[in-house]
TrEMBL record:
Name assigned to this protein: Uncharacterized protein
Source organism of this protein record: Holdemanella biformis
InterPro entries linked to this entry: MetalloPept_cat_dom_sf (IPR024079)
GO molecular function: metallopeptidase activity
Highest taxon above the source species: Bacteria
Residue intervals passing through the bilayer: 6-23, 43-64, 130-152
Keywords: Membrane, Transmembrane, Transmembrane helix
Length: 361
């Protein structure tokens, strides 16, 4: 074998050994599945070396062929056509001189002689035993199958267990809940409004994304979270007496109630149209109800300091916040929680006021 084939075989050994022996490290920060763990458990030094050596031998046998100087048998045929005097003269030359003499003689050949020369070369050059080669390849392949069979068996077992686990998770995720009260750690009681069918997985995902990320001091004032399907939200809001008119300021997507300190949300996990901001906004309403002076539904937003800010900077938190002081405070609260730097930039006085209440930064 030439040098390049030897180097390639060595490269195969290094790659196979490296991929197996350092498989755990190659995964990096990726979550290790039970299939990965089954491979890691098998990939000890002995197995890695065995598979790497067998892989290298497989490549060696595949690439092996008897190698000879391609001109050796052609020049032998050319010599057979020369007279004794010509042979003696050529034998007295150096290697390069002999090669030139042979090539000159070859160029003088007739078409028939060229064909005869090719036939001579093909008949006399050493041939690789394909039967032996196939036999060796079969033996090495069989050895690889035997060595890796326990690995494959355990991997398939782990894969079946993993698929079953995914099936059970999907089944649990798709469990339908209707008109139920459910409890999730760290959250107020969650009520699925009658007439709505929601997947428990969607509810948990929504709560993880948009509600659990809210500050505890806001969540602690909320006594109930009512949830529904997006398609039913408007009808439910109207039935609760909520103004849902789209007057150019956007359609209502959530609301809070001072009667029972609850918020009502539509569970839509496939779209993010500022739902975390919406939850922060409604919880700020609850904070307003709970921590105000006690006059009417609203407290903080009816106070002199907030009223002064509202009169002096009515548009700083957007058109919806400018509709009244309650929405103004709720918008400011949502901005403070989710985008404090923006609130600072639009109105530092309002930021300082909310910060004196929320104390987050």
């Amino acid at each position: 074998m030439n040098r390049s084939k030897v180097m390639f075989s060595g490269l195969v050994f290094s790659v196979v050994f490296g991929l197996m022996y350092w498989y755990r490290d190659l995964l990096g920060n990726k979550e290790i599945t039970i299939m990965d763990q089954s491979l890691i458990n098998h990939f000890d030094l002995k197995l890695c070396l065995t598979v790497a050596v067998l892989s290298m031998l497989l490549i060696v046998v595949l690439l092996y062929s008897k190698e000879v100087n391609p001109d050796q048998y052609r020049f032998e045929y050319i010599r057979s056509t020369l007279s004794e005097d010509e042979l003696n003269r050529i034998d007295g030359l150096d290697e390069e001189g002999r090669r030139i003499a042979y090539e000159k003689r070859f160029n003088e050949f007739s078409y028939k002689q060229i064909l005869e020369c090719r036939n001579y070369v093909n008949e006399n050059k050493p041939k690789t035993s394909w039967l032996l080669k196939v036999g060796l390849l079969s033996l090495i392949s069989a050895a690889l199958v035997i060595v890796l069979s326990p690995v494959y068996k355990d991997y398939k077992t782990a894969q079946n267990e993993y698929n079953e686990m995914l099936r059970l998770q999907e089944e649990a995720y798709n469990q339908i809940i209707e008109d139920e009260y459910i409890t999730l750690d760290g959250l107020p009681t969650i009520h699925v409004i009658s007439g709505n069918s929601l997947k428990i997985g969607d509810v948990q995902k929504y709560m993880d994304l948009f509600v659990k990320s809210q500050p505890n001091f806001l969540l602690s004032n909320c006594r109930m979270i009512h949830i529904c399907e997006p398609k039913n939200f408007i009808d439910i809001a109207i039935a609760d007496g909520v103004d849902v008119r789209d007057d150019g300021l956007g359609t209502t997507c959530a609301y809070a109630s001072s009667d029972d300190f609850s918020i009502t949300l539509q569970i839509d996990v496939d779209e993010d149209y500022g739902q975390k901001d919406a939850v922060s906004h409604e919880l700020s309403h609850i904070f307003d109800f709970a921590c105000g002076s006690g006059y009417g539904d609203y407290g903080i937003s009816d106070g002199a300091q907030l009223q002064s800010l509202y009169q002096n900077y009515p548009d700083c938190v957007g058109a919806y916040g400018a509709t009244d002081s309650a929405e103004y405070f709720a918008q400011a609260g949502a901005m403070y929680v989710n985008d404090p730097e923006n609130l600072k930039s639009v109105c530092m006085d309002l930021y300082n006021f909310v910060n004196s209440l929320y104390h987050m930064y």
